[in-house]
Amino acid sequence: MIKKITQSLFAIIVILTLISCKNTKQKLQEYVATYNSTAPSFKAENVTLTTARGYINDNKIELRFETNLEQNESNKNATIKRFPDLLREMLNKDQIPKELVNEGVQFDVYFLADDNTVFVKEIVNAETMPELIKK
């Protein structure tokens, strides 16, 4: 009798464990929803708004950082130098989850001028992440 109860409890535990495991697509959706809900509290120099958009079929997340900077060569050069630091900080704080990157999710990250033109675009994936972290 005790053996049957133990077997039943073990089966229930295994089923619950399998049900509670999330696949990459679910994690991607959850990340985008959480990121967008906490975006108003995001603080970075010159950033006025940040948003995330998920592309489930492409296994990709697009992060956009809108700024109050005018599109010109001086601001573009400064942004190119500072942007990797922001990405490194976000990776270290798990604001860009290494787990998702290691599962094959690619982050296309855009830093935009005040007119929504692109200052700089970085791709964070399993190949580029180690380089971004060590800089």
TrEMBL record:
Protein name in the entry: Lipoprotein
Upper lineage: Bacteria, Pseudomonadati, Bacteroidota, Flavobacteriia, Flavobacteriales
